Amino acid sequence: MDQYDALLARWPAPYTTLDIASRYGATFVAASGSESAPPLVLIHGAGSNSAMWAGDVGEYSRHYRVYAVDGDRYLVKLLLSGMEGVSDGTVTGAR
What we know:
The protein is α+β, with helices and mostly antiparallel strands. Helices cover 23% and strands 33% of the residues. It has one domain. The strands form 2 sheets. It has a 4-stranded mixed beta sheet.
């Protein structure tokens, strides 16, 4: 966890952290950008975590409310359940 905290200390934009509870356990989310901006959910690949987005989140958070999710496929599906295309894997926008 110390290595992960060190990566977050270098996060290129101001952020808040969220711990989202689900029936599959808690998941960490780093949120950056204006709360009134359109949402952008960043989901890391297998074997990685949300810190992989550190090189991009500075620019993204200038235009979007960015949610960098550390989660497994079950929680990601729950988080995106209000978005179109989740069932076929092609998320096209918020409902």
